[in-house]
Here is the input.
Amino acid sequence: MQTKPLIMTRVFRLFAALMAALSMYALPVTASSVSAPVSLHAAEKVETNSAEILLGQIVTIGTPSEALKSRLAAIRIGRAAAAGQARNISRDYILLRLRQSGIDHKGFDIRLPPKIQVQRSAIRITREEMEMMVRDHFLTTAPSDEAQVNITAVRIKEDILLPRGEISHDVERGHQSAPSRMLPVAIIFKVDGRRERKVPVLVSLEVLQSVVVSRRPIPRLKIITPDDVTLRPVNVIGRGERMIGSIEEVVGKRARRAISMHAELHPGLIEWPPVVKKGDRVTIVAESGHLRITTTGEVKTTGKVGQQVRVLNLDSQKSIMAQVVDGHTVRVSF
Here is the structure.
C-alpha cells in the first residue's frame, strides 16, 4: 500500500521543479543570483528591421544562463522609427526598463554609450519604379483588346522608403467627381502581407477606342444608314457617357435630334423608330397555351417594337392595350 505516498512524492517533485523554473521570471534577478557576471555591451549606432525594439536587438548580452539571456533579450524598449529613420535611446532609459522588468542590474558589467542611435532599415522605391507599376496596371487592364492605351504623364511626388521584407503592391483607381483626363490612382504597398503605405498618383492617359462617328450632318428623326457613319479612334477617358463601338448598333435606328458632322455617337443620340403609327391596320394576336386567336385592329397611338400602344378591335369596336411585335402585329395577353 505504498501507492499514495509514491504519488505524493512525485507531485511534490513536479511542483518543486515547476517553481524552480518560474523563479527565474517571478523573482528579481540580481548579480548575486547568477553564477557569473552579466555583461551588457552596445555600440553607438545599431540597425533594426523590426517595428518593435527589443533589448537583444540593440545590446550584446553576455551570461552563461540561456534562460536569463532570453529573458533579457525579450525586454521591450519601445517602437522603432519609421523606415529609413532613426530613434535615440538613452542609457538611463535602458536601465529603467531593466528595473521595470524586475532586473536588478547592480553588479552587471554595463558598457553602454550615453545614447544609442537605432536606425530602422529600409528599401527605397523610386519614382521611376512606381511609374512602371502604374503603367503596367493600365496596359493590362485596358477596356478591350482593341483599345490602344497611351500614358502621357505619371505624377508621383517623391521616392519612398519601406521596411525590409516581402514587398507587394496593388494599384487602385480613385473616385472622379467629374469627367477628367487626369485620373487619380493610388499604389498600395504591403510588407510581409501587412498594409504599409499608400502613395497617391495622378495619371494622364489616352485610351483610344474605335467609336462610331457621323460622316455628315444627320437630321432629326432620320433613319441612319451605313453611309451616314464610320469608325474612328477616340480617347474614351473622361467621357461621361458610353461611346458606341459598332456600326451595326446604330444602323436602322433614327436620330433623336440633329447630329452634326464628325459627332461621336452615344445611346442618348439615337433610338429605334416607331414601327406603327396612328391609323395603321395591324393583326391583333391573343395566345394562351395552344390557343391562338387573331383579329384585325387599328392603331391609335405611335409605338416602337416592345412598346404598349392603344389599338381599336374592329370586330368588337373596343379599345385595348397591346404590345408591338413588328410593323404588322401586336400582341395581347388573356
DSSP finds five helices and 22 strands in the chain. Residues 125-204 form one domain. The first strand starts at residue 39 and ends at 41.
